[in-house]
Amino acid sequence: MSTCPGCHVVLSEKHACPPDRFNASGECWQAFNELSCYTIAKQDPAFIHQHAVDAYGAQHGGGNTRPITIAFALIGLYLAQEKGCTGKEVQAAHMRIARIFRVWPRLEPPAKPAELTVLDVLQADSYEKNDEMIRQWSKSVWKSWEHYHPWVRETAARML
Ligand SMILES: [Zn+2]
């Protein structure tokens, strides 16, 4: 079995290559790619894929994950959870922030990762439940980063 260093999900060992961009096991990364096949193919106007990307990014901080990846993921989760933004709106906000140069601080991931992982989303038994689980996952990851909520709110307010 392999345990993901980011989200702590335990999956059967497949000797999959870990990603360069995230503090994740190769098996967890494969699970996320499987989910992405569904969320991207969906081509929904609300672009739910963005919430999955942000939940995954924020849940795989530490290691070789770049500070900007975590900061963007947290801003995305904040906009979705506290401002009710769609994935499409979050994507537009990310593009606006990306144009402003800044050095992002290294944010320390929570000691205990969120309860839900990409696996819970994949295990949903229908597409509708899949989308609902992505929202729950996003909520659970946002909650796990509570120690940085004031920083994220303030940073988003300043940059958007
Ligand atoms: Zn993981």
Cα Rg: 15 Å
| Side-by-side strand order of the widest sheet | 1-2
Element order, helices and strands? EEHHHHHHH
Strand content: under 5%
**Which molecules are bound in this entry?**
zinc ion
Number of helices: 7
The first-to-last residue Cα distance is 43 Å
Which stretches of 5+ consecutive residues score pLDDT under 50?
A: none
Give the overall pLDDT as a whole number: 96
Helix content class: 55-70%
> Tell me about the biggest sheet?
2 strands, antiparallel
Instruction: Give a count of the beta strands, DSSP E runs of length 2 or more.
Output: 2
**Gross morphology:** globular
Based on helices, strands and strand pairing, what is the structural class?
mainly alpha
Tell me what you see in this structure.
- With 160 residues, the protein is mainly alpha-helical.
- The protein is built from seven helices and two strands, in the order ββααααααα.
- It has a two-stranded antiparallel sheet.
- β1 (2-3) and β2 form a beta hairpin.
- α3 (67-83) crosses α4.
- The structure holds zinc ion.
- Zinc ion binds next to loops.
Question: Helices, strands, pairings?
Answer:
Layout: E1 2-3, E2 10-11, H1 26-41, H2 49-59, H3 67-83, H4 87-98, H5 118-122, H6 127-144, H7 149-159
Helix pairs in contact: 1-2, 2-3, 2-6, 3-4, 3-6, 3-7
The chain binds zinc ion.
